[in-house]
Design a protein that fits this description.
four-stranded mixed beta sheet; single chain; 24% strand; 369 residues; five-stranded mixed beta sheet; alpha+beta
Length: 369
Amino acid sequence: MRSFKLAAGAALLVIAAACGKNTQIEGTLHETPDSQVIVKLLDVNRFQVLDTVKTDAKGHFSYALDLKKAQPEFVYLFYGDRQIASLLLQQGDKVTVQTDTLGAYTVEGSEESLKLQKVEQEYNSFMSDMNNIVASENAPESQLSRRYVSYYRDRIAYVLGNSKSLTVVPVLFQQVNPTFQVFSQPTDGIMMQAVCDSLKTVYPESRYVRALEKEARRRISVMEMNNRLQGAEEVGYIDISLPGIDGKSIKLSEKLGKVTMVYFWQATAEQKMFNLDALVPIYEQFAPKGFEVYAVSMDSDKAAWATAVRNQKLPWVNVCDTRGALSPYVTSYGIGSLPMVWFIVDGGVDDEAQVRNADDIREYLRRKL
């Protein structure tokens, strides 16, 4: 929906556009008349632009959207590239937003949006403190650690006290820097799963709850893997032996590089695209430095896997486990979903490696090789 300067015809257009929409945002962008506000939806880990709305001569604007019952959405308002308001909206909400181009805003009509605003303010304050400590020449390292621990404990209290509010989801994904999350321990997965169980009683179909549960399962898998490795005194990883395209078994332990990525995948269209667009360029860049990939396909159709490997000319070690979900490696490597990766460095699994996309893999390899 778009709002325009006040005029009879334009007003009719606004009314018509709003028909059938059950959630309403009325806002004012101060000191910026006849401007534009960009409305974006958080699609789990990226922004999706919904619309661009115009403000009138007094900076007023309105926007309506249709939300599903029990499926709240994170909606963000932008002025250019600057985020100027954060909203967590439920079906039927009618919110009023007062903001400026710097993002100093107030919101009425949504308790969840108020909670989200407070969550973001506290996170920004924490990050400001951390940056100031890092920039200070006289600050001891212990000060940085104390501030982090204090914030971490405070966030645990918030999550446990608001376990049926979706505002806990962004809290659990907060980062100190691109390679270190506030909730950085594998054991945090237990708390994440408990929160998921609570959230699912209220929002069983929420995409954000599903994303949190996926991360919880990954964390729990890491924790279980660590526990198993503690009992493996001679080796720091569980060896794999599976057939390649020619039917001959290839052992993981015989193909290790300086850094080896054990890559569990399936020959789906999306993962084949990832191979060509992301992983092949990464491999070509880092293989000369000692990077190796041991790719384990979990496809039950071995012919389809072999065709994909041949057609894509995948340059690394490729093996297939046609047992799929029944494979013992599903348990031993804690495979909760595909694709999944583990890194073996210096003869052991690097359980601190946290990668979710190609950029994370590339950054990890830059640090290790």
